[in-house]
Design a protein that fits this description.
- The complex is a heterodimer of chains A (213) and B (280).
- With 213 residues, chain A is mainly beta.
- Chain A is elongated.
- In chain A, the strands form four sheets. In chain A, strands 2-3-4-9 form a four-stranded antiparallel beta sheet, with no helix packed on it. Chain A has a four-stranded antiparallel beta sheet with strand order 5-6-7-8, with no helix packed on it. In chain A, strands 12-15-14-13 form a four-stranded antiparallel beta sheet, covered by helices on one side.
- Chain A has two helices and 15 strands.
- The longest helix of chain A is centred in the C-terminal third of the chain and has 19 residues.
- Chain B is of the alpha+beta class and 280 residues long.
- In chain B, strands 8, 9, 10, 11, 12, 13, 14 and 15 form an eight-stranded antiparallel beta sheet that branches. Chain B has a four-stranded antiparallel beta sheet with strand order 2-3-4-5, with no helix packed on it. In chain B, strands 1-7-6 form a three-stranded antiparallel beta sheet, with no helix packed on it.
- Chain B is globular.
- The chains are: A mainly beta (213), B alpha+beta (280).
- At the A-B interface, loops of A face helix 3 of B.
Chain lengths: 213, 280
Amino acid sequence: MVAETDARWVPVAVSADIPDGTVVPARLPTGPIAVWRSDSGRIYANGDRCPHRGMRLSHGFVRGESLSCIYHGWRFGSDGACQKIPAHPAVVPPKTINCGALPAIEALGIVWAAVQTPTEAPPDFESYEAVRSLVIAATPDAVARACDAELNADTIKTQCDGHDVVLLVTATVPEEVFVIVLVDKKLNLSDRIAFSTGLEALRRTAEAKGYAA
Amino acid sequence: MTATAMRDAWYPVGLLSDLQAEGKETLLLGEPITVFGFETSGPKVECNGRSLPVFARFGHLWTSLGSPNKDLFTIPEADHPDRTLVDVGVVRVKCSPLRAVENFLDVAHFPFVHTDILGAESHPEVSEYKVEIRDDVDEVWATKVEFFQPQAAKSAGGGITTEYMYRVPAPTCSVLYKTCPPRPREWDVIALFVQPLTEDLCDVWPWMALFDDESSTTELIHFQQLIFLQDRSILENQIPKRLPLDPAMETPTRADLTSIAYRRWLKRHNYTFGAQLVAG
């Protein structure tokens, strides 16, 4: 059975943080995942565990359109299937060896992943785009209170340093949230940098003793 | 219940050259122990006021929480007087002690983890080798393991095909015999002695008995520490933390025959401290 939360797009990374040919660790509510961009610029996601010896695939390396495990070089394609086992060059890996490809798309400068392909598109905040992500050791409610705003469907709309902002808040592990912050697309680079730096104050407020309780 | 078998085994708890009279607190199989070195009466290990058996060998002090039914294993090959004996020191690794041993038994990771040192990506193939559990000595042995290595040892001038033998004489110890570049008829001996602190934390004490007239002890230690630090980046990032003994959890191939035999041997003896028995 597919849980209702499985067929839902979850914001897992800022697109700009994953250049071509790289892989990063991320989290879905179901557990850790590896998010990677192929040399041709396509984004993919799969479980963060090599089926061979359990090594995190987010420590691996991307070549062409494949992700390889750093431990023994097992190579996986965009469909999660194992393509190559370097220790046995003549062996065609059985179809059953798979690292569990997950649906992943990009919108608003954000990589969205899901456990099951959702029927609906991710939420659209038309004039906004992602500027950065941050991990805050606090509950979603504490983040909302630090912003002096309401939390509505994992989203906080507020003003920060005089700018309208949207915060996408995902709780993946207890007492920790992953936050992606979106600003007006038209905001220029120097303003974005100043704004991004200023977000540390939000983190400190949300994490302040007594505030998160 | 399940921990009893491992309590009766011997474990390294310190370098003989580095024991302190005031005592050093550490852990063994999750229990607090204190390791003392006294000039006159020799070393002593205590656990909650109880004296534990001690044994000095291979430059290390060994102890046991239980009643070992046999002496600590020997490495006769290491006795040759021309060998340089190297106490490498200690590397603390946030991983299962059993995963640390299993990684040591594996050659297929050399090209990717010890790139251009113990392996090269252009030569990743692991050819067939022989693995057995020797019932007479109750040890796991892998022989005729051959692998191409760009720089097999500090004493190797360039790339060579190295032959390895692996031996597991105790649940958290492994001895590796490998082609000795300056003396083709002898084997270099490299051992991994693991002190299990908890089920997912261990102190690894590598020890070597080599024929190497060229390198200084410092150079030999640096070489081995480089290798172990590369391994640590792997060992601290395997999921699950504990070594799965359920065959459904992971996917071995022919290159993993030593690891398969090691896991089977652990299971047979109930050596399960640091192991995960069922998938989950």
